[in-house]
Amino acid sequence: MSNQKSPFRVIVVGAGVAGLTASHCLQRAGIDHVVLEKHKEAVPTEGASITIYPQVVRILHQIGCGEAIIKASVPHDQLVTRRPDGSVLGSTPFFGFVKENHGADLLPLERREFLQILYDNLPDKSPIKTKCIIKDIKESTDGVEVVMSDGSVEKGDIVLGVDGVYSMVRGIMWHHANKATPGLITEKEKASFKTHWKCLVGIGPPEPSLGASDLTVTHDTRYSFEIVAQPHCTFFFVYFYLDEPFKSPNRVHYTDQDAEALAASVADHPLTESCTFGRLWNNRVRSTLVSSEEGVLDHWYHGRIVLAGDAIHKMTPNIALGGNAAIESVVSLCNHLHRTLAKHNGAKPGLAALTDAFAGYQAERMERVKYAIKISGIATRIQAMTSPLYKFLAWVSPLLPERGAPDQVGEYIRGSPKIGYLSSKGLPSGRLPWKDEEAEEERKKKLAARQVSGKLDTKQVLKAGHLLQMMSVSVAVVMLVSAARYVPFVSEYNAQQLLSWVRV
Ligand SMILES: Cc1cc2nc3c(=O)[nH]c(=O)nc-3n(C[C@H](O)[C@H](O)[C@H](O)COP(=O)(O)OP(=O)(O)OC[C@H]3O[C@@H](n4cnc5c(N)ncnc54)[C@H](O)[C@@H]3O)c2cc1C
Which atom number of ligand 1 is nearest to the Cα of residue 14? Predict the structure, then answer.
């Protein structure tokens, strides 16, 4: 246990989706922290959309952001799939089934609006510090120091790196890990993120032929279009399968010219019967071309540094799971931290206890995150029909029972963590129960059943004990009476005396 001069303090690096969620969770847990963001604003002006899943609506509800998020979004209506010529292949009320299953909608909204809601609803905004360029992290036996490029230093007990897919904190953690245990972080692990895709992203005015709030996927071979329609705007995503995929730490910086050239190559492609991609591109308000990585790391923590979000798990965005997974991971980590601190009754946990908490967090999240990466990758490949099998799946998917996909994804949704130390009451429920609530109900039922059978057992033991006592008293009486009668040296007085002891 470390000595206690100051409260336990977390230094969070990055004020993105995961970093702002971390501040909410830490504030509600009463854990001192600071969030260091490199940009000059806490909420960036760029970015397209982010779709929030019901499991994160539950978490947002717990931290007091639920209502604002629901208000800011118009839930999707239909999921429409279209052939390369823009004609309709299928249309399903997928999103209605999701709401029926979980009591909450899938909510598409502008990313900066989402971040603004997270920021505006922070109970205390003072932990968020902008224009913080990290230079180094120093770890000692009882704490950490984060050194900034202006020479200032933030001291704390642990660093939480949520600084995105090109995480600097991750690089520093790897360096520390390999210094302590040479070869711990292998070159193979450093190459965990593979890039098979680049994605043209943008936002523009509404396009009536794409519906008021539909999600439209237009298939083609080795590329596909995904359009998120909202009554006031249109978000577009065009996914291109790379001829030459590459692995981290390699990365590509795309320019505006790269984006223009790529957009021009698909400008004439129909999205619907009456709209080509060129129309969205020409009317766009802003756009960008980015890489889309996939993968998960083996080491999520080392020493006093722990990572979450895109810094450790990255998936393609087609089914919008990446940011939701980042939020879930932060929640899981904060649950473990909260439990560890509570066990220490106000004293600071030492490295061994922190390592246990970090290990518990990674173990809890790993399989779920791998599943999210896998299904995201499959969806991306089906949409862009990258092989004959994926092409077949693209054509047959609309023929499958409508409930199949929402129920399957429902199993994933209902397995999400929530904030263990905050209430989640007040949310409407769906037909599929949350797995944690189901397990809690089951636990309560078992406990009640055990208590009932425990009561029965005690009664039975008492009854048996009483019977045994009666029997031994009777045997003793018979023996004494016989002894008094047949053994001459036992006087009547002695027999009476013995009888009275036995009765006692
Ligand atoms: C086109 C596209 C669409 C997507 N759509 C969805 C969607 O609909 N739903 C969904 O759930 N997910 C979506 N995602 C994925 C989602 O955006 C990410 O998974 C999510 O943003 C990860 O959150 P994060 O906080 O880990 O990282 P980020 O959101 O990248 O945040 C990292 C933060 O750290 C800061 N930072 C970086 N380096 C430093 C440093 N050295 N010092 C200080 N600060 C630093 C950054 O400025 C940033 O604020 C999409 C992704 C893309 C590319």
Answer: 34
